[in-house]
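Collaborator request log, item 7. Partner lab (contact: R.S.) asked for a structural prediction of PRC-barrel domain-containing protein to inform their binding assays.
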Amino acid sequence: MTMERKENEHEVRQLTELSTSDFEIKDGQPDIIKWKVVNTAGQDLGTVTDLLFDEGEQKVRYLVLNLKGNIWNMAERAVLIPIGVAELDAVQDHVILPNITAQQLIVLPDYVRGHAVISANSELYGHKDFNESNLYARRQPGSYEDDIPFQVITRIYQEENEAENAFVLLIDNGFSEKDLKVTPYNPLNSVTDPAGNTDTEFIGDGSRDEYILSIAAGSAEQAALAHRILDPE
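Returned to partner:
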């Protein structure tokens, strides 16, 4: 959604909830309300319950994330995530928050419906975290693969060389480098609550990176081949 920017770029005004407005998502773009939100490892973080947009600019600024059912057992509540931080899964109707940590979520304030009064400062919204195009990048031609893959396969490795060896093995068996991706992922080792208490037991020690290998398989045959290569009996 685009329009000309208003002359007064430093005003403070209330953002509008899409679900209670007369606006709708632009044709050709998915409505992500009610979509599951996951991290890079595919672990549940919650659900998108609304989008907040600037009526004057006609631009989405935040998604509202309800943390119910999150992997870290945080209490159910709603928080705001800048729209440019999120990505859409290339195949499934999921929203991805890459590299998000429990610590980053736990310090976010609660969002109360109808109380999003936020600066319209153009310098703030010029930041990449508010770039709407980031959200759709995985579903646009050439961003991950020219066509939507038949299946996205992921494997997590404890050592970088294990992920690299699997990467090379797939290349040697005919996979294209553009369809493969290795992403470092460092699980958080602890969570500190507002009172300063730290719990290191229910999340894991997070003392080192893990490595996520993603394969965009273009057909059922290619997906089956990837499984045979990665999971030899």
